[in-house]
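fyi for ur records
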Amino acid sequence: MKLTAQGYKTLVSMFIIVFFASTVSVYRALSLSIYIVGVFIPLYCFFAASSLRMLSQNDFLFSRHVRRALLRKGEHAEVRVKVENKSGRRVRVRVLERIDGLKVVEGSVQAERNLAPDELLELSYTVTSHGRGIGILGPLVVHVLDDYGMVYKEFTLGEEVKIVFTEHIIGQPKLSDAVKTVFPTPYAGTGSSHEYGVDDIFREITRYEEGQPLKAVDWRRTARENGEIFVRRFDKQNRLRICLVLDYSHGNILGNPSLLDSVVGAVSTLASSVLERGDSVTIVVPGAREGVVKATGMRDYFRLLTFLSTIAPVSQYRIVDWLEYLHGFDAVFMVGRFANLDEASLKTVAEKVRLYGGVLYFLVPTLENVTRPVKALEVLEQARVQRLRKIYGHVYLVRQTDLLNYLVHLHRSLRMMI
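which gave:
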């Protein structure tokens, strides 16, 4: 139980007045009135606090609705909060929504009013974030006050809600003629498709068993039977294990949008495409404190996006110190400038990935709109890529707007070969 700012000021003022009334000779009737008021106010605060002490969190129903919990940076999230008085008495309530990493663009996160029994107090506001990351809402802080706002009891309702702001996630990418020339692609395998890759292979039709998915039902066969349900069974083809090594160093914070933003946006979309095909994705960010995340299905996609959106740019690192995380993949994509990568380190990484049974692709993004001051940097970058390509052939210089198409094409081409 605590005093409000108003209650604190009232008690201090009353104490000062009583002190002067006791030390300075004034009209005797006035002094008596001051003493009576000086006793009454503390007693009122004591009894008001005792009355509020009986209230608890269970006397209020709480709900919070966030329209969207996964947004692109700059988009708005609409939030509605409701608090219902179930205490059976009239109370004065002040609520405040805690926010962290968010900016309120419309509405208010606090309100105060008197609530009759079963009456609602509602908050409606809109928040946004100007960068990648996680914004946190809640818990809701509730102050229950006495009628004159002298004392209050504080408790919280609900739990924290996380809103993830990601880079712009591009729609389903299309193959372009420029992308098809990345390297010759052999197509083989039963059920292969240039658009979707290798499909599952049909094996047999069997009777339905409890727990099998509805989409596996063979409706034609089922219609010919009397009450029997039949399902199609397929053999799974080998699934690719993809590793994406991303450079989050400060050397990628160039341009508007920056190279790092383009990499995050492209990788976010690629991960969705890879997981929808049934492949697995592991993302490694060298130099980060917790720089590895693995996704084996769409159920892990939100966690993967959260990982991509919350990692901050890192300082210098040695890529060879992260070789242990590149084991057991069919393909490893290094995406980013990797400005500190020299020929010896690239050779070591490529050899390790090959020994582990995989293939390495190194994609270096470049700015789409190059200004005159950055032109010299682009020339130096082209020269560096040429040197690295002499050590390892699969090194590509890619415009930041074409990065997604290159990644998706490489993934689809690899699927054709399994």
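The CA atoms of residues 20 and 153 lie 32 Å apart. thats all i got for now
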